[in-house]
Amino acid sequence: MFRNRLIKVHKHFAKIARKQNIACFRFYDHDLPEFPFAIDWYDGVVHAAEYKRRHGMEDDEHEVWLAECKATIAEVLEIPQDVIFMKVRQRKAGRQGQYEKFDETKTERIVSEGGLNFIINLTDYLDTGLFLDHRITRSMVREQAAGMHMLNLFCYTGSFSVYAAHGKAASVTSVDMSKTYLHWAKRNMQYNKLYNDEKHEYIHGDVMEWLDYIPSRKFDLVVCDPPTFSNSKRMDDIFDVQRDHVKLLKKIIKGCADGAKIYFSNNYRNFELDRDAIPAAVVKDITGATTPFDFQGRLNRKCFLLEI
């Protein structure tokens, strides 16, 4: 059953990806309840994350089952098993789970997207370092970045920052509370030969706290992709995106120039934007327009464009 499903979906998504010259894409996401994986193709290697569940198997049984699944993926894709990286994707209550290491292997690889290159880590963290569902949004940012002062909040590994720099942004400011990810973000910029220490700033800090001191009316283009919930020890307070998004966006808007654009997204399944409380001239739900072909009908993420 798993094998047949993989044959069907991989053939379908790989064909579309080739036509669009896309090297990294998702081709399976919990399609069968009995096989709860998110499986991504990263330009020659596979990242397969099993959603944690009550599977009823003993540890040794589960290991055998995982090995059989890995063998099936290898057979269908006609690749060696040593380029398939599998992990259990536990659902974390807070963002601090994203920062916890699974391993110290540091299996890195360079993958391409949109004419740029990104460093991914296939073993050590919950995610690889490149969120494939934001492929279209990144392109939108690049198209609008020329001459803009761009701000990337909760920047993670800085892929939006790289796209903005490639789009000839006047400056790019990236903020995150993880030194590890900020270093990764800087490496991504350097690898693409875009880094300029006079134009690109990397700030280590709690975004909500940093925004209290945001330069007034400086930024023309903002990307903000916060966690659903965070109670990290690095933060002074608990963050809840549904409860706190208005406060967050009002802080951002204070730092925006007239006519600025804010791309705001999050992964909370039941998120509802409080449009009336947000002092923006235009608020558009662009979730559909920013959902790639490989995430159609599979994506909980919401994405909005605010024009100031």
Unreliable stretches:
91-99
State the CATH class of the largest domain.
Answer: Alpha Beta
Please report which band the strand proportion falls in: under 5%, 5-15%, 15-25%, 25-35%, 35-45% or over 45%.
25-35%
Total individual domains? 2
Order of helices and strands: HEEEHEHEEHEHEHEHEEEHEEE
What kind of sheet is the major sheet?
7 strands, mixed
What is the fourth-level CATH superfamily of the largest domain?
A: Vaccinia Virus protein VP39
Q: Helical residue percent?
A: 25-40%
Q: Quote the CATH topology of the largest domain.
A: Rossmann fold
Q: What's the architecture of the largest domain, going by CATH?
A: 3-Layer(aba) Sandwich
* Rg measurement, Å: 20 Å
**Average pLDDT value?**
92
Structural class, by secondary structure, is alpha/beta
Could you give the distance between the termini?
A: 51 Å
Characterization of the model:
It is a single chain. By secondary structure, the chain is an alpha/beta fold. The protein has two domains: 2-91, RNA methyltransferase domain (HRMD) like (Transcription Regulator spoIIAA), CATH 3.30.750; 127-307, 3-Layer(aba) Sandwich (Rossmann fold). It has helices at 2-19, 59-77, 96-99, 135-144, 159-166, 179-191, 207-210, 241-254; strands at residues 24-29, 37-42, 45-51, 84-89, 108-113, 116-121, 149-153, 171-176, 200-204, 219-224, 229-230, 239-240, 256-266, 282-285, 302-307. The strands form four sheets. It has a seven-stranded mixed sheet with strand order 9-8-7-10-13-15-14, sandwiched between helices. Helix 5 links the parallel strand 7 and strand 8. Helix 1 packs across helix 2 (59-77). The chain is globular and about 55 Å long. The model is unreliable at 91-99 (pLDDT under 50).
